[in-house]
Amino acid sequence: xxxxxxxxxxxxxxxxxKTLIQKLRVNPNNKLYxxxxxxxxxxxxxxxxxxxxxxxxxxxxxxxxxGFVGMHVLKELIETTNSAIYCIIRASEVSISKxxxxxxxxxxxxxxxxxLIDKRIFVFKGDxxxxxxxxxxxxxxxxxESIDTVVHLAATVRFYGEYDSFYKINILGTRKVINFCKKNxxxxxxxxxxxxxxxxLVDIERNKRLFxxxxxxxxxxxxxxxxxxxxxxxxxxxxxxxEDGLDAxxxxxxxxxxxxxxxxxxxxxxxxxxYLKLEAISKLGMIPRKFLRHIVEVLPVDECAKRLVNIMKxxxxxxxxxxxxxxxxxxxxxxxxxxxxxxxxxxxxYFDRKIKExxxxxxxxxxxxxxxxxxxxxxxxxxxxxxxxxxxxxxxYINKIENEEIR
Length: 407
Prior knowledge:
This protein is of the alpha/beta class. It has 17 helices and 16 strands. The chain has a seven-stranded parallel beta sheet, with helices on both faces. Helix 2 (17-24) runs antiparallel to helix 3.
């Protein structure tokens, strides 16, 4: 797709972003041709050496604002900055766009901030896949002259479907946002996902399965899932733009969970794979003991928004951040259900036998499907190839901000 003259074997051997970029430099006509400047910006940064500066956000353009993360980023921006917020929401009329925002504000914040619409929150009907985001010339002029920062959250996040549907929004839409930022000299904050790891390695040494902020390809299977593939390729678009001089940050989000403060979860819970897995475990009433130790990358949505905005209000050479915490399935279950004593802890052998019985009896089939990947991860041959997400650099960065070790 990108005209990359690189073999599969090269991809396996060149397991860091730095070495992969060096390989790409062989062909200067390559669309992803990347020089040493990008390597210095993305692949060689040490948190202890980072010079972090505070910046003032004066105006923000947000895509995907009505989503779970988008609403909490909006709240954090309102509460911690003086910036005006501009957003596009897909609809046939602007009044419908505003109503969609109001519905989300009512659900998440009991109507708080509704009075700021048309005063500090400005809503347009639009679509990131359209020319100029579907804005007319006057609207585009307002946005262009009023903002200095873009927060790009809009994406198709389903874990199934045809690749083309993901390509249109997640890649072409991101490309349009990048072009807008480049043309108008705006700072881009792009929301990616830790899922770009692809979860498992194809065939690589076990000691090279650590996925840090400064890596992108480490031999993972990312093409099997159309969502993961689209986000991976969108990251490449942003990295290329960084090389071309765009001031941008990439935030790889983990699984976003209920609010830490009051357990409020997203409107459409059934689109959350984590929710479906937790419900499946509850209905099955059992879980393999080994499963409880399984690591997942999660973060409450309010904590996620806080970290995002805190980092957005800074500038440095670090361009990629991991916004998640590593937790065990047991910790997630205890956070969600509080009391998990009714969920029986069993051996994998027993669990496997019961699952086969359920399948033969056509019982709890959807629930079994929803936990199948976690169950498979309990098997040794998969665990050896499981990728570990590392967020130490991001955590050190956040600690510097919280300890006011920035200028």
